[in-house]
């Protein structure tokens, strides 16, 4: 299969407000978002859609579509992220969550893990009163208070280290983050960027951060049931899943798992209302395996050890995929659901 992808950085540089721009040429913002994150493969996109995007970016189709470049995945050891929406090195990831769903805990955990891999972590402190952001400070190497200060620090740091950079959506809406990324690219500095939304408004937008390589959609139901990290494995996605970036086994397991979880969620609604006795006999195994997979995708974090009393766990991707396969194939059918909650590998 030819390795092709949408040139998301180009769209970020060229189109300041992609939501409005997409609508102006008759494109659905959700379609554009799905193309950017790889949820809709480029090979399945309509020609008119690609032509419209190229027109908006004032570029050729050859510039809009990148061929042959291999995207590099950063393995985080967080099961849900690595299996369903991998982090792209040098890409931009948007966290979409309302208050209380744990997005800042996930950010702090990622910073903790990336520091172990040699990254320098940098936070652009948002303006205004946001006491909750202090939860991340312990994992931040460098705090900056303005985009200009960020540029000056990142130019120096980026010549020596890999950079993990985080900012709030307010800096995206002003266009500052895209301009910062563009300026840094011209001096050869590449960032892996994390965008959060402290106001919780991103959930109501199709393209809350503009073009992204990765989208992590947090789930209110998972958070309410304390299934952390509450990242939705069905709706979170990454452009690295498209084309030939990952091994075929990863794609097969991911797709099988998503299919099971979709059906499990449908069945769970029935069970919640009517009880297990109303569940068709043919669907019992599907329901139970969905329960087990959902439990397995919970995980203890290093940054939460002081609060949970449980040691943090990291799981290699190959172990995560093998464990998911075991659940899908029924090899864990005799395991109690409770035994899979907040563990590392099986």
Describe, in plain words, how this protein is organized in 3D.
The protein is α/β, with parallel strands linked by helices. The protein folds into 3 domains: 4-67, 434 Repressor (Amino-terminal Domain) (Orthogonal Bundle), CATH 1.10.260; 73-241, Rossmann fold (3-Layer(aba) Sandwich), CATH 3.40.50.300; 248-340, Bovine Mitochondrial F1-ATPase, ATP Synthase Beta Chain, Chain D, domain3. Helix content is 43%, strand content 12%. It is built from 16 helices and 11 strands. The protein has helices at 8-14, 18-24, 29-37, 47-57, 61-64, 79-84, 103-116, 134-137, 147-157, 169-173, 176-186, 220-224, 248-274, 284-296, 305-308, 317-328, and strands at residues 4-6, 65-67, 73-74, 87-88, 92-96, 119-124, 142-144, 162-168, 191-196, 214-217, 237-238. The protein has a 7-stranded mixed beta sheet with strand order 7-6-8-9-5-10-11, with helices on both faces. It has a two-stranded antiparallel ribbon with strand order 1-2. Helix 9 runs parallel beside helix 11 (176-186), helix 13 (248-274) packs across helix 14 and helix 13 packs across helix 16. It starts with a strand and ends in an 18-residue tail after the last helix. Keywords: ATP synthesis, ATP-binding, CF(1), Ion transport, Membrane, Nucleotide-binding, Transport. Residues 245-325 form the ATP synthase A/B type C-terminal domain. Belongs to the ATPase alpha/beta chains family.
